[in-house]
Fold:
Amino acid sequence: MKIKNICCIGAGYVGGPTMAVIAQKNPEIKVTVVDINKERIAAWNDENVENIPIYEPGLSAVVAEARGRNLFFSTEVDKAIDEAEMIFISVNTPTKTYGIGKGMAADLKWIELCARQIARVAKEDKIIVEKSTLPVRTAEALKSILDNTGNGVNFQILSNPEFLAEGTAIDDLHNPDRILIGGDSSSKAGKIATQALVDVYASWVSEEKILTTNVWSSELSKLTANAFLAQRVSSINAMSELCEHTGADVNEISRAIGMDSRIGPKFLKASVGFGGSCFQKDILNLVYIAKSFGLNEVADYWEQVIIMNDHQKRRFAENIVKTLFNTVSGKKIALLGWAFKKDTNDTRESAAIYVADYLLNERAEIVVYDPKVKAEQIYADLDYLGSRNPEENRNLLKVVEKPYTACKDAHAIAVLTEWDEFKAYDWENIYNCMLKPAFLFDGRNILDRKKLANLGFATNSIGLPAVQMSKEKKLTSLATAG
Ligand SMILES: NC(=O)c1ccc[n+]([C@@H]2O[C@H](COP(=O)([O-])OP(=O)(O)OC[C@H]3O[C@@H](n4cnc5c(N)ncnc54)[C@H](O)[C@@H]3O)[C@@H](O)[C@H]2O)c1
Ligand SMILES: O=c1ccn([C@@H]2O[C@H](COP(=O)(O)OP(=O)(O)O[C@H]3O[C@H](CO)[C@@H](O)[C@H](O)[C@H]3O)[C@@H](O)[C@H]2O)c(=O)[nH]1
Structure:
């Protein structure tokens, strides 16, 4: 079966880039990405392709190539469903904020709405592809809704989780480590549907990288992958705290263990804590699923990854207060970076939000600079926490357009995102315009500590002893072991 018409419900961080690449690589397939968010769709359709709603290196070029040719963005959801043979569901599946499973389970409200809409509209057989990250066995619930509320047409459900990371989405989509497709291999219709999706990817991905499994393995593989990745970050962050007490250097440890081919070098970068819309949500979901089967040891094991991450964010903020002589009240602190990682404008669950909130509770005056995040987003993130009213957030935290404005007259600077441009700043100039002692907290270990100490900064990094240049021009450690 050759697919001619694809619809994707959800034009977000996954639906947008994924469909743009599918359209780019399959010019003969019409790909329509639909969303209920009118502004988002308008931004995807903006004449100036640089104004698309997601910042992702290389994305605007792909959109420019395919948009209007075979890639379309629309709010006409019913029409797109009706026309497509294959429908991707790529809507948000956040952690539930109410009712049973509050704070843990995935909220499948939007998934269910999609299923009901597809069932209502579809007049011909359709292949439904789960692109969103979902709890294991969601396909069963989807099938039940589709079959019980539909117009008697047949639905095949495939699981096709997305493994792209933000900031490298286009490269990840162009050169994926693997494509995972879960389908029903026991029926002819299931096999045909799976092959139809394999063919879409085979336009640019070699067949040995396209893995087909049963639906449940595919759904659970996605949660497992994120749990393993996040666990690596929490593991190295746990060691970073031990390093700070022993004089060991976490960067050296990452290098040393990463050379063991069984461990591998990636994802061993100690940081202020992982953020992003996926890791925490997906692990909490995994914990909830394990608990719901009574597997308490399994649940506790994975929950520790989150506990460690919360600890890492908190202790970073606590360290700022302690180092600034136990008070930051009325002190200006510059935060460089708000996004949860570099090369994205996404701020969901960014460590910066929690560090800022902690410091605001300590009555600091905060100034934020991020090259890609807009002020409204920063305030929306803080307001969402509900720690203080919106007016107070706007009084106590300012967002500026230039890094040097953020740092001028600051008592301390905290680097919270690893944007490359931070490394290239004129740090001497920044030092000169700060209050002294000039404290710098590098939550990403990206800056040259020796150079900064030479300029006069008192530098704190993650998993490394704090350093400062003594009067005799000797690099001294500020930390006492133990
Ligand atoms: N962000 C990532 O890097 C990433 C990577 C892999 C997987 N995922 C998973 O992909 C899914 C989507 O994530 P995202 O980051 O793209 O979310 P997102 O919030 O950026 O986008 C989801 C979009 O779906 C739209 N939507 C919701 N319900 C709708 C409906 N009934 N009809 C039409 N549109 C609807 C929303 O308006 C929104 O624009 C989630 O399950 C997530 O866990 C995300
Ligand atoms: O060594 C590391 C690696 C990452 N991080 C942090 O971990 C978070 C997540 O980073 P990353 O995984 O690169 O970005 P995401 O876009 O969240 O991607 C993850 O989550 C996606 C959504 O499910 C998956 O598709 C991806 O495979 C998975 O990497 C960020 O805050 C990073 O700064 C570290 O602190 N140290």
Notes: The longest strand covers residues 5-9. The chain has two domains: 5-213, 215-482. DSSP finds 18 helices and 16 strands in the chain. Residues 5-213 form a domain with the Rossmann fold fold (CATH 3.40.50.720).
